TrEMBL record:
Protein name: Uncharacterized protein
UniProt cross-references to PANTHER family, sorted A to Z: CYCLINS
Record's keyword terms, sorted: Cell cycle, Cell division, Cyclin
GO aspect biological process, one term: mitotic cell cycle phase transition
Gene source species: Coptis chinensis
Residues annotated as domain Cyclin C-terminal: 119-215
Family per record: Belongs to the cyclin family. Cyclin AB subfamily.
Length: 215
């Protein structure tokens, strides 16, 4: 099942003694900026955050090591996505050394058992948003950008780990649809969002709860 590949939704309470949801959000934001500065694609960002959460679900991490785990996660993600062969040295900053990054990379790969594919919101968001566009011709390319904007905001929210990526993606499409077409009732029978929610066994109140978490 999808849950087998996903991090714990409550690892801050169950595993971590030094890491909080706020500290996680700060480091995720730094990873997002680093990904953009390096010219890496969106999938790389989502995989990086996924690896970070998986590691934090299994290993206790001190404040000083959190950014190193994040950088090691980004290094693995960049290799998986098949970007220009990255060098660990380009990921070195004043808070870590090449050796520290490589050691964390090895630990993370061992934890993942070298199976570095993991489902993310991006796995589902592209097809969901395109399906919504097909159903409603009025939705422009700005609708797609809105979906991706909400998706990036969802990365920062620790509470979103309570939901599998497919449900988060469906909620994002719903939220973007309401944003662009507020005059249309979101729960009409033939609405593409409702079809998505039914496919993924999501009840309306649960979807609404997911939407409320996205800033």
């Amino acid at each position: 099942s999808k849950r087998e590949f996903l991090p714990l939704h409550d690892y801050v309470a169950r595993v971590q003694k030094h890491i909080t949801a706020e500290k996680r959000a700060l480091v995720v934001n730094k990873v997002a900026r680093l990904t953009e500065n390096l010219g890496y694609n969106t999938l790389c960002l989502y995989l990086s955050v996924g690896y970070l959460d998986i590691y934090l679900s299994s290993k206790e991490v001190h404040d000083g090591d959190l950014q190193i785990v994040a950088v090691a996660s980004l290094l693995i993600a960049s290799k998986y996505v098949g970007l220009k062969a990255p060098n660990a040295k380009q990921f070195c900053f004043d808070f870590c050394t090449t050796q520290q990054i490589l050691e964390l990379e090895t630990k993370l790969l061992q934890l993942l058992q070298y199976d570095i594919w993991t489902p993310t919101v991006m796995t589902f968001l592209g097809s969901f948003s395109r399906a919504a566009q097909v159903q409603c011709k009025a939705l422009s390319s700005s609708f797609i950008f809105c979906c991706y904007y909400f998706a990036e905001l969802s990365l920062l929210e620790y509470e979103m780990l309570r939901f599998v990526p497919s449900k988060v993606a469906a909620a994002i499409v719903f939220l973007a649809s309401v944003t662009f077409q507020p005059e249309k009732h979101p729960w009409v029978r033939n609405n593409i969002c409702i079809c998505l929610f039914r496919v993924f066994y999501t009840k309306n109140p649960e979807v609404k709860g997911t939407c409320k978490i996205i800033p």
